[in-house]
Design brief:
Number of strands: 8
Radius of gyration: 17 Å
CATH architecture: 2-Layer Sandwich
Structural class: alpha+beta
Order of helices and strands: HEHEEHEEHHEEE
Oligomer: single chain
Length: 201
């Protein structure tokens, strides 16, 4: 079953990247619930994390509007790629998903989502290449952990297609923090969330 899932993931990555390179990947703009989108991803990957003895913590800081207009599926895909990457390269500790407000106006919100882990980390000289296709930190990574080396490249393309930016900070032996920021319209037809900060697991 695990081999079949890995094969399906690889095929989906290749198909997505082919569409992106051909300029055929459409970005939707529909109302969605940001909190539910992120919690759904965390829930789906929590089983894989628990199998490795890892915990996933969600933190919502500041007045990030819950209801926005954008492509929930593609945002979920980026979070999935970043979280899967963290789970793959983390052997103990926890992974934290942070959602933080950068700027919130009545009709528009700029927010940052980061995935922070306590994994193996990435050498500084590899950080500038990590979002390129078929790139992993070194050849032994592919042999030991598998994967296509497309997940981060796809994430970069998706974020940029949505008008955002993506980046990473990492230290070998300490862990990595992958992040992306987006500016999206607020769904003003739905109730605005409470201004309180949310912390959950």
């Amino acid at each position: 079953r695990q081999c079949a899932e890995s094969l399906m993931t690889i095929l989906a990555d290749i198909l997505d990247f082919t569409k992106i390179e051909a300029g055929q990947l459409a970005i939707d703009a529909t109302p969605f619930d940001l909190r539910k989108t992120i919690e759904r991803v965390a829930g789906l990957l929590s089983v894989k994390a628990k199998e490795k003895g890892l915990s996933i913590c969600l933190q919502y800081a500041g007045a990030v509007p819950r209801y926005l207009v954008g492509d929930a599926n593609r945002i979920g895909q980026v979070v999935t790629n970043l979280l899967s990457n963290s789970i793959k390269f983390t052997h103990n500790g926890q992974i934290v998903i942070n959602v933080a407000s950068r700027e919130t106006m009545e009709t528009e919100a700029c927010f940052l989502i980061s995935v922070e882990d306590t994994g193996i980390g990435i050498p500084q000289d590899k950080l500038t290449q990590i979002f390129e296709k078929f790139v992993q930190a070194d050849g032994s990574i592919t042999r030991r952990y598998g994967g296509t080396g497309l997940g981060l490249a796809i994430s970069k393309q998706l974020v940029e297609r949505m008008g955002g930016t993506i980046g990473v900070e990492s230290h070998v032996g300490k862990g990595s923090s992958f992040w992306f920021s987006l500016r999206l319209p607020v769904d003003t037809l739905r109730a605005m969330p409470s201004k309180e900060s949310y912390v959950g697991t």
